[in-house]
Amino acid sequence: MKIKSVLYQLFLEPVNKYSAIALSLLLAISATPAIAQDNTLELQDSDSSDSPTENSEINYRELPELKDSESPQSDPAQGIAPLPAESADSTESINFATQETDYTLGAGDQIKLDIFQVEEYSGEYPVLVDGTISLPLVGRVDVRGLSLKETSDVVSQEYSTYLKRPIITVGLVAPRPLKIGVSGEVDNPGTYEVPITAENPQFPSVTGIIRQAGGITTIADVRNVRVKREVKGKEVVYNANLWQLLTEGKVRQDISLRDGDNIFVPTTDEINTSELNRLAEASFGLQTDKPIQVAIVGEVFRPGSHFIQPELLSRNNDNNGTNAQRQESIPPRLTQAINVANGIKPLADVRNVEVRRTTWDDEEKVIAVNLWELIQAGDTKQDVILQEGDKIVVPKADALSKEEVDALATASFNRETITVNVVGEVNSPGAQEVQPGTPLNQAILAAGGFDNQRANSNKVELVSLKPDGTVDKRQIEVDLASGIDDVTNPTLNHNDVVVVGRSGTTAATDTAGQVFSPLGGFLGLLNLIF
To answer: How far apart are CA 515 and CA 62, in angstroms?
Structure first.
């Protein structure tokens, strides 16, 4: 029995050995590509390690700077987190992210297909109006909204019927022009088309499109600029904090845009006038090279609508070691508008000036301004930058002290000259253009001084029109050697009248002349007769 078992093992061992060899050969044969029958094309495998395999990663051939990146997602490591959705059923998500999403194909794109070892079907194909590409053998394939990787997978699936192991690389040859919408607090909202060419291969950014739309307005909320994008059939909203871009140089906040994106610049809840200077200097900031039309009402000498021209500032340009002058536009400001309106009236309440500004959705924002802080403390942020359509309201004060009236009269934003009338016994009577704050003595000298033969140089009458419409008359004892003094040499206001009377001798002489004038005429007549 034992001998029989040994013989069985001797016989079975070679059989198992040869069976294993045969099984290995069968497996090896089945792993090699078979020769395609009928219309099936043959693809040969290569032993070279440089040849692509089924699981190899595809490298996309695109224009420079047009690389696709990861899909949008939050990044807690960089402080990027989604905002809470408005409701549990909302399909909209908002991300504080600036990562680029994959480029998706659409009508007008030109792509290139490289089918491994099938050159006759490789080539460039346009994406047609209906979002399809027309391919040899398989016909039309819908690629609308697909990334390059997804297009490669879809086309590979279509060719799998005809190719044993289709390996297809998809590259972007010529992107279609991008259409970007921009709305909200920008100067010229609308849709903008941006071509992408070999000379300009980069996708546009948020700041570039805002600049193309004329820049932001002065009430734009640059911390919460929104970019709406459709990703996989769902709307995703990105937040771009452009204030961080300005103050911290965080370029990732300047989101790279895609076709169909919509930019919305919201209105700020609270206007910070101290930030306007920085926004005016930004590349995407306020437009400063065009005149604007504003309305100014209240306590100004020329209320109504006025055009305000931007001022030009010359700066040295030290590039290449030269001292060439370059000019920069300065945005129109509140004090410039007051000056164009011929200045404020003496009873203007400069502590409570209002600038009323209309938002993109026709609501009104009110900016409270205290120009007294500008005069007294030099607070330049009170000199608000204006924009098209502003309405400026200068209210009337209940009462002002003499010091306040004098300070306002000499303020830089008030009238450059005032008109006072000097009448009576002066050498050049009439209206005199003098600077605000001019004293009485200087006005008399501007009119040529007293007529030494006729004028009463000791006393004049000052007639002033008060802000409430009443007339104030008072006698001033003149001392031409006196400094500015409210009693002997007061400062004058616009439209004041200085009356220089006659001296006592002159008055008596004029009276006598009037009395004897008829008698002299009668005697002259007698001389003619006789």
So the answer is: 109
